[in-house]
Amino acid sequence: MEKSILQKFERVAFPENITSVISVVMEKYGLSETDEEILEKLSKGQDTESEKVAKIVKRAASTENGAEDLFLEIKEVFKLPDEDAKSFAKEIKEKILILAQKISEEEIAEVVSEEKLKSKQDFSEKKEGSLPKISSYHSSKEDIYKEPIE
After folding, report:
1. I want to staple 84 with a disulfide (CB 3.0 to 4.6 A). Which of 45, 48, 80, 94 is the partner?
2. 127 and 84 inside one domain
3. What residue numbers bound the domain in which 120 lies?
4. CA distance 48 to 113
5. pTM
């Protein structure tokens, strides 16, 4: 029995190019959609085929029996014959789930805090560079335009 990718972990991340890998696998099994079909489903509030695949992949990566249940879920969701569903499940395991990276909550918090710190530093650098220091301006020159008070 395969162990879950997420055992002792809270989340899974995939590389940025995962959508192209999913698209190739979907096309092989006749599950790709045209832009018009996607827009029609979205306007009706329905899941597109790629959203269905993404949900299945996420569930398979995040549950203990996900990889074993992959075949059954694919067969049920996409109404594929047994042989195609088995082959599709095998490709998802070999080409997509293998790319999953384990990320603990501590790692996520660390990345988020690093991003916030970097953002604050960038903001403070921009802020300091764009405004002249008022105290140095006034201390170096006497205000010659000041009218005397009578």
Report:
1. 80
2. no
3. 105-140
4. 34
5. 0.58
